[in-house]
């Protein structure tokens, strides 16, 4: 087993066969402290030699010391299909970490849905920024679905504003009461999930507190929002409304990309033409040539 990496405790090597990413990347299941809790996650160390002549934007050599904190979707732990993209980003030279969040993947605590998970993200970012190979001035957030929400809330905090350069958020829910109405109107399959419904049964004030649309005046860092036009889990209007609200609040660094015909979290199938186009725009922002 590898020695601990900074404030990240290494629990074991991450299975290199979760996806089709480069298997020579060093990756670990880790834990770190978040307040009184211990949170699990995955950590990918940057490769010394990136891919030569990359043809895909995520394989573009990373800036020296560049790091990405990735927020995952759902409330059921880190999806294994994310591994492919994260390994490729690490092969390109990025340090990548993905917190599992409280209550997931054996982490302490209970699922709070875009509440305590924000604290877990800030604590993870702090540990990430203190790694020897990380330049604390080049830490970006990438998140999808629930992770998109969490990351934007983190960016709205004073610590997050200081710590992170900006965020790329895809397929997020940014107005929880409206999303709950949409689920009910469509008799959605997610209404059968007990964890999600426990959270969605919170009172209106608690739902509003978890809604990014309520904190747009505190988000001044660059934000790129993307959404699939055929998303069956979260309607595209969640993203278009947030983009408009951020601009109205004075954020001049908002980019918005809607991919017609694309589904929920489409970026994790990186070879699809819609994902290539989106990743190209993302990398032109966080890793320009």
How do the helices and strands line up, and which of them pair or pack?
Blueprint: E1 9-13, E2 27-34, E3 37-44, E4 67-71, H1 83-91, E5 95-99, H2 116-129, E6 139-144, H3 146-155, H4 158-163, E7 167-170, H5 176-185, H6 194-200, H7 204-209, E8 223-228, H8 237-248, E9 254-259, H9 273-286
Parallel strand pairs: 4-5, 4-6, 6-7, 7-8, 8-9
Antiparallel strand pairs: 1-2, 2-3, 3-5
Helix pairs in contact: 2-3
Provide key terms for this protein.
289 residues, alpha/beta, Rossmann fold, 9-stranded mixed β-sheet, 9 helices, globular
Describe the structure.
With 289 residues, this protein is an alpha/beta fold. The protein is built from nine helices and nine strands. It has a nine-stranded mixed beta sheet with strand order 1-2-3-5-4-6-7-8-9, sandwiched between helices. Helix 2 crosses helix 3. The chain is globular, with a radius of gyration of 18 Å.
